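I'd like us to work through together how a protein chain folds, taking it slowly. To get us started, please write out a protein record for me. Go ahead whenever you are ready, and we will take it from there:
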Amino acid sequence: MNRNYNHIRAAIPALLVAFLSGCSGGSGAVNSPDVQAGAGGAAAAAPVLSVPANLSVHEGLTATFLIPTSTLSNGRTATWSIAGNDAARFRIDPATGALSFRQAPDTARPGDADGHNDYDLVVQVSDGLRTSQAPLKVLVLPWNDGGAAGLPLPVVASDVARPAGTTGQPGLRVLDWAGFKAALSYTFDDSQPSQIDHYPDLKAQRVRVTYYVNPVANWYPNYDATWKDAIAQGSEIGNHTTHHCRAAELTDNDPNTCPAGLGSAGAEFDDTGVYIRTKLGQSAVWTSAYPFGDTDYKPAAASRFLVSRGVWPGTVAPGTGSDAQNLPLAEFPADASRFDTAASQGRWMIYLFHTLLPTTQDWGGGVDIGAVAGNMAHAKSLGTVWIDSVVNVGAYWRGQQLLQAATPTTSAGTTTWRWTLPANFPSGRKLRVVVNGGTLSQDGKPLTWDRRGYYEVSLDAQALSWTQ
């Protein structure tokens, strides 16, 4: 390890080091205090380089995660480069200093020299006459480090200053999609045999998804074991009814349509909910998908689920828009680059898959598993898209609506927003917000500004206060 780095690290307070080591969430970076090189004394004319001593990123990231800064003498132009034990694993733009991994890091297969998922670099900048350099350690965290409900970390190439405020008004604003440009959910219907057979391929992508299950399909080997493991990995098991019948068939008394049906939409949902909780071990069931997209299930779903997915085409706008009990879905793009255009619209896209190919159990609507995995890999590489289960994105979307609809009241110089969580709302969820200066508090405690550019607000608290 570079001796200069050890000297710098020793100067960082132990509490800050613990924070940086324990940071959790999705793809993103956390910067420690900057180290400046090349300033003062005989080296005063050399470039002044500002680089964090440490930062954390999450595996799967190939987008730019750091753009260092430098101050040069008038008329000089910066040229950037890197050195160090792990420099070969990274690329740096010689003109801008934009730093990224050459290949997405994988904590299961460390690529750093010592195999500890902490990469040692030396960032260098030259003005054509002199060169300054500073050490940088990049710690790679597991993709699901924040747990099943944790918000991922947006990629921010430099620190965002806490707003100072000049208006005397809070100016509260919720960040769309937790600070990402768009959101994306992958859903898989029917708990099909092909999904179980290709589950290792999906798991290898390290993406939280939603599997909508029909327990009547539990005859297939490893049915329960697969969905239990999906829950353990942070994915969601959603409710697709037990027998996958059209709602009208449950009460038509026709033995040729749905003879095993449970008699009502509510009974079908409830039976599957019990299975998910007792057989698979998920604590609750928050979302559903309608068999055949049949919205006759909607009245029963409204009292049981936070959100439900239909099959009509479309995407979801942040904070408003779509019917929570009939969310639309997007056509799967065979060409992964088509996703870039959709993501640029700043909306939530929900993909639906049925049979995964190749398989001996083709139930229709087949898509090659390589195309699905390739789409996931491409979406992750962008670094600007929040990829998560329907319950996680849906809870943020509904939570944003709640806070935006709350009417603030002001008393003794304190402005307060209050909201009531709807039934079936999962616990432990947060929103990311900004204000025009001042102090935000919950439960009498000031919130901490995150250097990526937001405060995190607990939705469970159901109140938020602001003072100038």
Q: What stands out?
A: The chain has two domains: 3-141, 177-394.
